[in-house]
Amino acid sequence: MRTGRESSVATPLETWVEEAARLTKPDRVVYCDGSETEYQRMIAEMLRGGDTYALNEKTYPNCYLHRSSVNDVARTEHLTFICTPDREDAGPTNNWMDPDAAKHKVGALFDGAMRGRTMYVVPYIMGPVKSPISKVGVEVTDSPYVVASMRIMSRMGKTAVDRLGGSSEFVPGLHSLGDLDPMRRYIVHFPQEKLIWSVGSGYGGNALLGKKCFALRIASVMAREHDWMAEHMLILGLESPGGKVTYMAAAFPSACGKTNLAMMVSALESQGYRVWTVGDDIAWMQIGEDGYLHAINPEAGFFGVAPGTGMKTNPNVMKALRKNTLFTNVAMTAEREPWWEGIGDGPPPGLINWKGEKWDSSKGAPAHPNARYTVPANQSPSISPKWDAPEGVPISAFIFGGRRARVAPLVYESFNWQHGVFVGATMASETTAAATGDVGITRRDPMAMLPFCGYNMADYFRHWLEMGKKIPKPPKIFHVNWFRKGADGKFLWPVDFGTRGGARRGAGDADRLCSGKERADARWTENFRRGPERVAARESWRLGAGAGGFETVPGQIRRAASGGDTRRTREADTALSARSYGIRVIDRPLVVAASAAQRRRDGRRIRGVKGVLGSFHMKIGPAFQQPDAAVPAENAVVVACRANFFCFGKAVHGLFH
User: Fold this and answer.
1) Are strands 118-126 and 135-141 parallel, antiparallel or unpaired?
2) If you placed Cys at 359, which of 142, 353, 442, 621 could pair as Cys (CB 3.0 to 4.6 Å)?
3) How many angstroms separate the CA atoms of 365 and 40, rounded?
4) Residues 326-343: tens digit of each pLDDT
């Protein structure tokens, strides 16, 4: 039986659906229209199935709790395959299977898998409906949970069919719950055909094929072929007091706080700064006419990790998920409200755990560590007015990071695009509950794409390098580590995301002062530069950095320095001194002279970023509130470091106090 769509001539979509139906043999086929009425039908079907429960209608209207099978609670990366004719095309970081072998092996599991069930045809758009960057996908599934979730996570139904028309330009995805046996579970991708098959799992990342499967694994292949980028990145905008919004994208492995960061409330809000959410997980980016990468969020909802989420860490999402939300594997209170670790106080009496059992401390965590919420993005108070803009938003900075208790510094900036690719390619993180396997093991996760790149990672790095040559105004690239701990085991950076505003504010200043997109007021910039020049000229003369010492020193400074003795050993020591501070600045020779001046003054070197910023905070910070303020010569190194760290934000020093 076929309902929901009638046509005299089969379209490519209908032809493919007929092929899928012949393989899976459902009792009937239903084309989904994406309406609210249809969504409620899916919810009713889930409630009848006995694995979904209505929550308190007064406190959580139109919210439901779904419990998955206890063996189906996370992405199964070891059962996820890239199927290419040549194994090298998949690369060493992906599981590989020959396409013909995959269709034979997995096809046997699909044969008759939907007998006695309904096949739902879910056409959807990844990205804003009218965006040229957006793509169409079609998932067929026998899971009402998938249909309900896809309605939240994508632009689904009639709007997608209208955009597709009679075209064959869509990514097909075949999904069936099968029998939920982990031994008969596969998620396979066919990059050459842009095809996805998934069987044996009902969990989000394995079953919502528009998410990781299409939006990253298949889209990364499409992006490489057509000179764009599909990345595992959040997108946020930082609004300054003047109303200018600077957009950035950030890559973190799953369960490292991407959603909390994307939806944070700025600690600088009282000063006029605000964070706008564009996306929390995936970014599709193309080069715009203005020379910047323009990014869209291909998703329409948030599929976030619940444990650890609360009013302290993410008040915006806590407000968003009070209605129209589908929770998965959280606990439920006696009042039929969702509960998880971090939502507030300790476990209340009468708690039912994620398995549906009465909870006590002997039964472990009440909510599964990878429990999720699925909520419409437009319900967040922080949602950007530009989140659905067809043209996307211009990206000024990339931020890489991971969960590292040791080793990785708190924050640093790459020297250039090529170095930034190296920084992203070598990033690492400690594993979390977002995927099956051991937790807390450090693994390399290039650009947070290790589980999601749909082709050889070496070719992926090459694509990044090639894109750098094509982007006229590439984003600045930074690396951060929110999770660094001190000897006492406590976070060096406060765990509350609201205290991390300086890094995003700083990346905005990086665009303002370093990228040239919107330079600061010319008079302010001139005052900023000339003060250090005068100081450095005087100190260069004192230190003997003569005319032949630094070929790139501005003529004014070179002439001032030429009157002194040229001592090559002092020049080398001065240069090394600057490098020891990790200083890379707007005008490097100024820093060389200034750093040596500071070293001579106090007989020691300021070690580490914290010391440098601390010096700035104590000695020179107030002076820069007044553009014409005189800069004391003895603070030359602070001026130099100020020049450097302006490239990552004039408020960064506040992060350490």
Assistant:
1) antiparallel
2) 353
3) 31
4) 999 999 999 999 999 999
In contact, 519 and 513? CB cutoff 8 Å: yes
- Residue 638's φ and ψ, nearest 5 degrees, are -65, -40
How many angstroms separate the Cα of 266 from the Cα of each of 273, 505, 592, 644? 7, 9, 35, 24
Average pLDDT of the residues in 234-238: 97
| Total-model pTM | 0.76
Q: Helix, strand, coil: what percent of the chain each, to 5?
A: 35, 20, 45
Residue 591, helix vs strand vs coil: helix
Residue 4, beta-bridge partner list:
none
Same domain assignment for residues 435 and 292: yes
Q: Which residue has the higher pLDDT, 519 or 149?
A: 149
Burial class (CB in 10 A: 0-12, 13-18, 19+), 259: buried
Phi and psi of 89, rounded to 5°? -65, -30
pLDDT value for 409: 86
Q: Average pLDDT in the 413-428 region?
A: 94
What are the Cα distances from residue 410, in Å, to 267, 562, 639? 18, 40, 22
Give pLDDT, residue 594.
Answer: 45
Residue 657 one-letter amino acid: H
- Which pLDDT score is estimated for 51? 96
* Dihedral sign for Cα atoms in the order 640, 643, 647, 648: positive
Claim to verify: residue 83 and residue 182 sit in the same structural domain:
yes
The mean predicted confidence, pLDDT, of the chain is 80
| Residue where a domain stops, chosen among 515, 539, 570 | 515
Is the predicted pLDDT of residue 484 greater than 90, yes or no?
A: no
Identify the CA nearest to 223 among candidates 171, 268, 162, 155: 171
Which domain does 452 fall in, by range? 229-297+380-515
pLDDT value of residue 404: 86
CATH number of the domain within which 288 lies: 3.90.228.20
pLDDT for the residue numbered 432: 61
Percent of the chain's residues with pLDDT above 90: 62
Give the ranges where 361-453 is alpha helix by DSSP (H).
Answer: 417-425
Contacts of 291 (CB under 8 A, 6+ apart): 471, 472, 473
CB neighbour class for 342 (10 Å; exposed up to 12, middle 13-18, buried from 19) = middle
- Does residue 311 fall inside a structural domain? no
On whether both 543 and 604 belong to a single domain, the answer is: yes
Q: What is the pLDDT of residue 572?
A: 38
Q: Distance between CA atoms of 462 and 468, rounded to whole angstroms?
A: 10
Q: Are residues 607 and 645 in the same domain?
A: yes
Q: Which residues contact 597 (CB under 8 A, 6 or more apart)?
A: 535, 536, 539, 542, 543, 633, 634, 636, 637
Q: Looking at the domain assignment, is residue 343 inside a domain?
A: no
Tokens describing residue 12: 């490519």
pLDDT of residue 42: 98
Active site residues: 256
Q: Using alpha carbons, select from 456, 455, 452, 460 the residue that is nearest to residue 212.
A: 452
| CA atoms of 231 and 243, how far apart (whole Å) | 28
pLDDT on residue 633: 33
